[in-house]
Design a protein that fits this description.
Elements (H helix, E strand, L loop, with lengths): L2 H13 L3 H4 L3 E12 L5 E6 L2 H14 L3 E12 L2 E11 L5 E12 L2 E9 L13
Parallel strand pairs: 1-6
Antiparallel strand pairs: 1-2, 3-4, 4-5, 5-6
């Protein structure tokens, strides 16, 4: 499987609400720069590592989307060991629905995803309940 296919597999797994499938291309030592909510309610960048911590973080995200979670690819680019995917998504569940768009940057080492950085509009996520966990 190519690096592009492994990067796409992450979002395709999310669409299936299957965290194991989503993380199948990640190394055991991978890191994922996502979001966390502070006690004062502010969203901040947070890096989750290793893969087991990423699994917990993404499981909370997927678990919050009880009705729908769907990502659409807008653009996919590859440069050496880096893949970038621009996406749009919609999530529905537990009364905290949102639509959003963003970019994921994947860095590969030895054919596995080693680092991921997620960039998106934080506004739609302010009330998304997965951050409460």
């Amino acid at each position: 499987m190519s690096n592009v296919e492994k990067a796409k597999q992450y979002l395709l797994g999310m669409n299936e609400l299957d965290v194991d499938l989503a993380l199948s291309g990640f190394s055991e030592t991978a890191s994922y720069m996502g979001l966390s909510k502070q006690d004062d309610g502010k969203l901040v960048r947070h890096t989750y590592e290793p893969k087991s911590a990423i699994h917990e973080y993404i499981s909370n995200w997927v678990g919050g989307a009880s009705d729908e979670l769907h990502y659409e690819f807008r653009a996919v680019m590859e440069d050496g060991d880096t893949v970038m995917i621009e996406w749009e998504d919609v999530a529905q569940g537990k009364g905290n629905d949102y639509t959003n768009q963003g970019v994921l940057v994947y860095e590969f080492e030895d054919g596995q995803i080693e680092r991921v950085r997620m960039y998106c509009d934080w506004g739609p996520l302010m009330d998304w309940h997965f951050l409460e966990g």
